[in-house]
Design a protein that fits this description.
CATH class: Alpha Beta
Number of domains: 1
Radius of gyration: 15 Å
Shape: globular
CATH architecture: Roll
CATH superfamily: Hotdog Thioesterase
Strand order of the largest sheet: 1-2-3-5-6-7-4
Structural class: mainly beta
Number of strands: 7
Distance between the termini: 33 Å
Order of helices and strands: EHEEHEEEE
Largest sheet: 7 strands, antiparallel
Number of helices: 2
């Protein structure tokens, strides 16, 4: 098994949501124009007790959030520091994501110009596409001097 490029604990220092709102469990690979991440959705996942109990599905809004986090991880890896902000998003949902033993895989192709990252993120479950998210993510530098240093 190949070691993850970033484990969940590696993601915590990045400017990403914390606790339950951090959707990504690991980044498997990152290169100049792409990233592959995974998210675990076991039956015990916190969202399933709240989102349609008895008919659990992973919410589309959290799928969009996770896709944004994937692009933010790529931006961080490329040296873009600051606060990631979704500027534009569209999503097409093809299959529901239900509790399962295997991960949801996020495969993203990304291009960027300055502080704007444009990504196409495909979510698959067991090799079957569940959703495609197209997004623009702006990286807003931290601080008045624009240093973009990570938060403490």
């Amino acid at each position: 098994m190949t070691a993850a490029a970033y484990a969940r604990t590696d993601l915590e220092p990045m400017y990403l949501p914390v606790g339950n709102m951090l959707q990504i469990d690991r980044a498997i690979s990152v290169n100049d124009h792409a990233i592959v991440c995974e998210m675990d959705v076991p039956p015990s996942h916190w969202v399933f007790a709240l989102h349609f109990p008895g008919d659990p599905i992973y919410p589309g809004c959290l799928q969009v959030e996770a896709a944004g986090q994937v692009v933010a991880i790529w931006a961080w890896h490329k040296g873009l520091r600051g606060k990631p902000r979704l500027a534009r998003v569209s999503a097409e949902f093809e299959q529901p994501i239900r509790p399962q033993p295997g991960p949801v895989v996020f495969s993203a192709k990304i291009r960027h110009r300055r502080h704007i990252c444009l990504g196409t993120v495909e979510l698959t479950v067991g090799g079957v596409r569940a959703a495609t998210v197209e997004l623009a993510l702006a990286i807003v530098p931290d601080g008045a001097n624009g240093s973009g240093e990570p938060r403490p």
